[in-house]
Specification:
The complex is a heterodimer of chains A (112) and B (114). Chain A has 112 residues and is an all-beta fold. Chain A is 0% helix and 51% strand. Chain A has strands spanning 3-5, 10-14, 19-21, 24-26, 32-39, 46-51, 57-60, 63-66, 76-78, 87-95, 100-102, 106-111. In chain A, strands 2, 5, 6, 10, 11 and 12 form a six-stranded mixed beta sheet that branches. In chain A, strands 3-9-8-7 form a four-stranded antiparallel beta sheet, with no helix packed on it. A two-stranded antiparallel sheet of chain A has the order 1-4. Chain A is globular. The N and C termini of chain A lie far apart (41 Å). The relative contact order of chain A is 0.34. In chain B, strands 2, 4, 5, 6, 9, 10 and 11 form a seven-stranded mixed beta sheet that branches. Chain B is mainly beta and 114 residues long. Chain B has strands spanning 4-7, 10-13, 19-25, 31-38, 42-49, 56-57, 65-68, 73-78, 87-94, 104-105, 109-113. Chains A and B meet through strand 5, strand 6 and strand 10 of A and strand 5 and strand 10 of B.
Chain lengths: 112, 114
C-alpha cells in the first residue's frame, strides 16, 4: 500500500548547523504531490513546502526539499538551523485517489 | 488564508459518554477532514467529506461517526467514548481534491476519556 516513512522520531541539532529530515515513500499512483507540514508547540500543522516536480528544488523560510522519484525521497534540509525551527515536522504524500498520507512525524530540537 | 475553527478546545468525558466535536471553515472549501494525532502514529484520517450531506470513511473510522451539515460545518461524533479515543483531534479543509491541494488545519480539540 501507499506509505510515507520518516525514519527519525527525534532530530537534535545545534543552532547554526545544518539539518536534514528524511522522508521516503511508497506509492502506486502516478499523479502525486509532496508536502512538508510543520507544527509548532500548541499550534496546528501548517504547510511549509510542497512539490510535484521531479528533481526540482523547492524552498521556503530557509528550508528546501527536492523530490527525487528515482529514490522515492523528499528530504527536508536547512543549511543553518535556528532555535525557532524547533517543531514537529510531517512529510505527506497526496494522490488524486482521495487522501493525504502522513508520515509519523519528526521532532526537531534545536539546541543553543 | 483559510480559517478553520474547532470547538471545544478541550473536552473531558467518561467512558461511555457522548461527545460531539465541531468544526467550521469560512473559506468555501469543498473538502473537510477529521484527523487524530497520537504520539508514534502521527496524523491519521478518521472521516472526510466533499460537500454537505457527503461522508467518506478514512483509515481509522471505528467508533466515530461524522456529519457534514453545510459546506462550512463538519462534526465528529463519539457516541460511546472509550479511553482509546483520548487524543488530539484536528479538523482540516481543502479547496478541492487534487494532488496538489494544501490542507488547512484548525487549532485542535484535546479529548480525554476517563
Amino acid at each position: 500500500g501507499d506509505s510515507v516513512t520518516q525514519t527519525e522520531g527525534l532530530v537534535t541539532v545545534t543552532e547554526g548547523l545544518p539539518v536534514k529530515l528524511n522522508c521516503t515513500y511508497q506509492t502506486t499512483y502516478l499523479t502525486i504531490a509532496f508536502f512538508w507540514y510543520v507544527q509548532y508547540l500548541n499550534e496546528a500543522p501548517q504547510v511549509l513546502l510542497r512539490s510535484s516536480t521531479d528533481n526540482k528544488r523547492t524552498e521556503h523560510q530557509g528550508f528546501h526539499a527536492t523530490l527525487h522519484k528515482s529514490s522515492s525521497s523528499f528530504h527536508l534540509q536547512k543549511s543553518s538551523a535556528q532555535l525557532s525551527d524547533s517543531a514537529l515536522y510531517y512529510c505527506a504524500l497526496s494522490t488524486n485517489a482521495y487522501k493525504v498520507i502522513f508520515g509519523k512525524g519528526t521532532h526537531l530540537h534545536v539546541l543553543p | 488564508e483559510a480559517a478553520v475553527t474547532q470547538s471545544p478546545r478541550n473536552k473531558v468525558t467518561v467512558t461511555g459518554g457522548n461527545v460531539t466535536l465541531s468544526c467550521r471553515q469560512t473559506n468555501s472549501h469543498n473538502y473537510m477532514y477529521w484527523y487524530r494525532q497520537d504520539t508514534g502514529h502521527g496524523l491519521r484520517l478518521i472521516h472526510y467529506s466533499y460537500g454537505a450531506g457527503n461522508l467518506q470513511i478514512g483509515d481509522v473510522p471505528d467508533g466515530y461517526k461524522a456529519t457534514r451539515t453545510t459546506q462550512e460545518d463538519f462534526f465528529l461524533l463519539l457516541e460511546l467514548a472509550s479511553p482509546s479515543q483520548t487524543s488530539l483531534y484536528f479538523c482540516a479543509s481543502s479547496e478541492g481534491w487534487g494532488s496538489a491541494e494544501t490542507l488547512y488545519f484548525g487549532s485542535g480539540t484535546r479529548l480525554t476519556v476517563l
